Amino acid sequence: GQQLNQSPQSMFIQEGEDVSMNCTSSSIFNTWLWYKQDPGEGPVLLIALYKAGELTSNGRLTAQFGITRKDSFLNISASIPSDVGIYFCAGPTGNQFYFGTGTSLTVIP
Amino acid sequence: NAGVTQTPKFRVLKTGQSMTLLCAQDMNHEYMYWYRQDPGMGLRLIHYSVGEGTTAKGEVPDGYNVSRLKKQNFLLGLESAAPSQTSVYFCASSYPRLGNEQFFGPGTRLTVL
């Protein structure tokens, strides 16, 4: 099946640093979604992107829908301890819905 | 509003046993989904439903069955559990469009011995 590859797999950063992660696919997506999952909970939507080239912000988070429609990027500025968690990209293709493999973020105070 | 709820939160089964996981949502969403989450593999779609009385296969449907008899409920069944089905199961719901935001339940941790 479809696979969304996320990188990096994990990150350890100091509080206050900026974070960048990306998601790539071998197929074209018309929608990209970024979710965050805290330990023991279900994912929660952070940002939704619906148009190639779109750049959308949500507080300290900014996400971009790649021009090729095969990738997306998520940036977190001035990280804080509560940013800790696993970040997933996701999107539909055909009648299926796929999630990326996740980027685990650890913020060191 | 409770959002999306899942029952039970934890369960341990023996190989060959059956069980049903219940998902309920109070947001009047048309679409509902069942995922499994395994370490290093993200979430994979098992089955989904686009409305009451409808179901469709996702990426990894084998060994599972689902039913959507009421709009607010989506049941996931394991007829004969196998150790490979040990996982965390998440239910989600959304308004009618696969690209719409999905609201997730808290998950069910299932262990099959």
Structure description:
The complex is a heterodimer of chains A (109) and B (113). With 109 residues, chain A is mainly beta. Chain A is built from no helices and 11 strands. In chain A, the strands form 2 sheets. In chain A, strands 2, 4, 5, 9, 10 and 11 form a 6-stranded mixed β-sheet that branches. Chain A has a 5-stranded antiparallel β-sheet with strand order 1-3-8-7-6, with no helix packed on it. The termini of chain A are far apart. The relative contact order of chain A is 0.34. Chain B has 113 residues and is an all-beta fold. Chain B is built from no helices and 11 strands. In chain B, 36% of the residues are buried. The model of chain B has no long low-confidence stretch (mean pLDDT 93). Chains A and B meet through strand 5, strand 9 and strand 10 of A and strand 5 and strand 10 of B.
- What is the H/E order of chain A? EEEEEEEEEEE
Oligomer: heterodimer
Number of strands of chain A: 11
Strand content of chain A: over 45%
Derived from helix and strand composition plus strand pairing, the structural class of chain B reads mainly beta
Number of helices of chain A: 0
Return the structural class of chain A.
mainly beta
> What is the strand tally of chain B?
11
